[in-house]
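Closing statement on the zinc ion sub-project.
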Amino acid sequence: MKEFDRYHKQMLFKPIGEHGQALLGEKHVLIIGCGALGSSIAEMLTRAGIGKLTLIDRDYVEISNLQRQHLFTEADVQKKLPKVIAAQSALNSINAEVTIEAHVMDGNANTLPNLVNNVDLIMDATDNFDTRFLINDIAQKHSIPWIFGACVASSGLSFTIIPEKTPCLDCLIKVAPMFGGATCDAVGGVISPAVQMVVAHQVTEALKILVGGAEGNLRSTLVIFDLWHNQYQMIDVSKAKAKDCKSCGTDASYPALTYKNSTKTEILCGRDTVQIRGKKFELTMLAKQLERFGEVNQNPFLVSVQTKAHRIVFFQDGRTFIHGTNSIKEAKKIYYQMVG
Ligand SMILES: [Zn+2]
């Protein structure tokens, strides 16, 4: 297949053209989160002919994801594949020319700063504001543009953050209420078209940044919509940029980065799941050891065991999910029962 065929329609679009297409093929985008937003962003950029994508996500594919997470299939659910691994395979089959780097891990203050080398743009595809503040600080510190995107129920938000030019997320949050201040997006459920609408805003802005020369067309407003209730707003936040901002101000201290994520256990938002960070296990040995607790499944990335009341998933990097509880105490009890 000639390259002319693959990107023909996109190059006919004048603001991109052959020149923009060539530039796009040299660019590297980091996508943080590979759920609904992340998988669709990754698919669009892969089809568009991005040079390289780096994906990071801590989760594996479950049946409840398929309603809105476009890259995943029932076979991925069956195999309990980590989302970035399933995504990598799907993306490779869509466009083999794109380099896809996949990381099965937590995006936190220890891991994320290691992923931004030679990154041209960061896409926010997380579901919580803790991680977004981290992205915000990293982007400001390394002077990388990033595109904030969030989705709850039938509503969505997006804003393009360019270091030294636009307000940052810290500035913004002080003037605009985001989903009533909730730290977790998962509370109100979500419908798929709202996700796609956020992705459409994010990826269009990404293309403008990546193909060069189109920066003048970047949206400077915060876009906020509710598809179900037919509301669509553009909020002018240009005055929100604060000189004394801890993230983008003149004496920035990047507070989210100095807070080293030392918490060993954490309740995952909206998931009825606790994550414990502990020692790394040799997965095959662990699988044998777990057999006495219930039905065990293993793939190269994780081992899971289904007991009467819980499913416990041990990842290669030393993280464990205890599904079916929101109690850290209960989760720890189950964990130590199994692995001492
Ligand atoms: Zn700021």
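The radius of gyration is 21 Å. With this model delivered, the sub-project is considered complete and its resources will be redirected to Aim 3.
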